[in-house]
Task: inverse folding
């Protein structure tokens, strides 16, 4: 098994409603994959399964046994909302780990990495939405994961901030050699960030298309190749039942 994560023949139901049917994907070392699809198609559910937060499914979710996931899960998660604890400082939110003493040097490094050097003593209420999500990304990296799972983390910020955060994720993934699995509704975001775009659709959902993005980073957002791939993704999405 060369992949960091491998999900095989995933079936997921809620009571009598089947949400995912026969979904299989593998995340390779250093790879960025986007999960794209209409609302309610099970993208976030699939991410929760990958994170180990949902164990009630049929199929297999494997982590590479030959790779060092350390004492934790080897997986960091960033949610749609920052979910910061308002009574803790920025630094305390990043280093919060089941009451264990935080690695202060590593927290300071992460603050520099996400562009918040000197803001460690601030409270969440003093941050903009984009800054709060930078804290959430730093917290996702605190455990030094090999895989970072992102559940629409930029959907609540303005377009310019969104682009800055996208570029930040690309930089951090390369810097720390992290694989990324991203849930998004944004076509531009999917093709700009990813090595592969996996499109879910149908009822129940299954993989209906997979697009390779064979362009090196950094990428030009205006590149014709990205526009063509966006058109392919849009066609695959439009063909799905509403």
Result:
């Amino acid at each position: 098994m060369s992949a960091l994560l491998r999900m095989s023949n995933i079936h997921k139901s809620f009571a009598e409603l089947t949400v995912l049917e026969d979904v299989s994907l593998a995340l390779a070392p250093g790879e960025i994959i986007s999960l794209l699809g209409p609302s309610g198609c099970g993208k976030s559910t699939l991410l929760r399964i990958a994170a180990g937060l949902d164990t009630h499914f049929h199929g297999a979710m494997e982590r590479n046994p030959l790779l060092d996931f350390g004492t934790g899960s080897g997986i960091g998660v960033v949610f749609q909302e920052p979910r910061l604890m308002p009574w803790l400082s920025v630094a305390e939110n990043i280093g919060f780990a089941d009451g264990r003493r935080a690695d202060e040097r590593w927290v300071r490094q992460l603050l520099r990495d996400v562009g918040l050097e000197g803001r460690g003593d601030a409270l969440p209420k003093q941050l903009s939405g984009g800054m709060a999500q930078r804290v959430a990304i730093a917290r996702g990296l605190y455990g030094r994961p090999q895989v970072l799972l992102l559940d629409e983390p930029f959907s609540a910020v303005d377009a310019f901030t969104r682009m800055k955060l996208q570029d930040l994720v690309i930089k951090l993934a390369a810097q720390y050699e992290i694989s990324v699995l991203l849930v998004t509704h944004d076509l531009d975001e999917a093709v700009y960030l990813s090595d592969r775009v996996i499109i879910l659709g149908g009822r129940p959902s299954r993989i209906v298309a997979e697009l390779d993005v064979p362009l090196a980073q950094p990428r030009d957002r205006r590149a014709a190749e990205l526009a063509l791939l966006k058109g392919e993704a849009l066609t695959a999405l439009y063909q799905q039942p509403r």
Notes: The chain has a mean pLDDT of 92. Residues 159-175 form the longest helix (17 residues).
